[in-house]
Amino acid sequence: MTTLVTGATGFVGAHVVRQLLLAGNRVRVVVRRSSNLQALDGLAVEYVEGDVRDVVSLNRAMRGVQRVFHVAADYRLWTQHPEEIYETNVEGTRRLLEVAAECGVERIVYTSTVATIAVPSQGHALPNEEVRTTLDQMIGHYKRSKFLAELEAKKAIALGAPVVIVNPTAPVGPGDWKPTPTGRIIVDYLNGRMPAYVDTGLNVVAVEDVAAGHLLAAERGRIGERYILGARNMTLKEILVALAAITRRPAPRVRLPHLAALAAGYLDEFFARITGREPQIPVEGVKMSRHRMFVASDKAERELGYNPGGVEPALAAAVHWYQEHGYVRGRARAKAVAEAKAA
Fold this sequence. Notes:
Blueprint: E1 2-6, H1 11-22, E2 26-31, E3 46-49, H2 55-62, E4 67-70, H3 83-102, E5 107-111, H4 140-158, E6 163-168, E7 170-172, H5 181-190, E8 196-197, E9 201-206, H6 207-220, E10 226-229, E11 232-235, H7 236-247, E12 254-255, H8 258-275, H9 283-288, H10 298-304, H11 311-324, H12 330-342
Parallel strand pairs: 1-2, 1-4, 2-3, 4-5, 5-6, 6-10, 7-9, 8-12
Antiparallel strand pairs: 9-11
C-alpha cells in the first residue's frame, strides 16, 4: 500500500510520516522545490516535487496511491499577503480532494484544526465535535481559511469522497523546526523573552500522539466524521509553570492585560509592515488569546482508541530539542543547557 502525505516537511506531517514508516507503510511525500527537507532526513520516503495548488503535480503524486494524509497548511498568524493563505489552505484542499476522488483513493484523512471548533460559548460544557461554528466566529485569516477548507472537505464528503477529518489542538515536542506559534512560546520562554503572560489557555498534546491519532483515524475513523486530537486543557500560566519545573528557571509572574498586549501587537505589526520582518506579537494571536481554547477529545478516545500521554514529557522533549538545535541563544542557551543537565 502506498500512502501519500502532504505537508510532510512540517511539524505534524513529519511525525505522521515517521509513524507510517514504523508501521511498515510505503510513503510518498509531496514537496516543493523550495522545501526544507531536514525534517525528513534519513527517512526512506519517495519524493514527488509538487504543490497542493498545482493539479498536474497532484495527479502525478496520486498515481497508485490508496491513502492520503492531507496535512499541508499555511500556518501563519501574520502575512503581508493573506491571499496566499487562502490559496494554499482552501483552494489547495479543494484541488487535492478533487484529484484524490478522480484517482479512486480509498481513504483521505484531512488535517483541520481545533480552531474551527474552540470558539467562545455561553454554555459550561467543553466544546466538542458537535459544535457548529460560523465564519464570523473565526478570528484572523488562518482560522477563516481553515474553516473554509473544512467546508471543502464536507462538500467532498457529500459527493462521496472517503474523508475523515481530524482537528489537532496545540502539539508540542521534538522536530518543530519553524517553530509553530505554540513552539514559539517555549522558545521565547527559554530565551528569557517572556517577562509577562496573558490570561489564556490551550489544549496541549504531544505531537507523537497527534500523529498516532492520524493513523487511527485512517484505520478506524468513520467517513464524514471529525475527531479532536488533544490531551490536556492548560492555562498559559500552567504551561509556563510546567516549563519552569522542567528547566528550573522562574516562570513569569506578571499577568499582562489583554488591552496592553493588543496595543503592543499593533505597534509590532506596524514596524513589521515597514521592515518586512515577521512580528513577534501578531495581533491575530493576541485576539485569539482572549478566549481559552479548551475542548474535549473523548470522541477520539472512544471511537478510535486514541490514548494521549502526559503533557510534561512532551514539553520536556520540546525543551531539549530546542536546546540541542540552536534555538536558545547566548547566555540563555548556556544557562538552559546547564539547568537541563542538572535536572
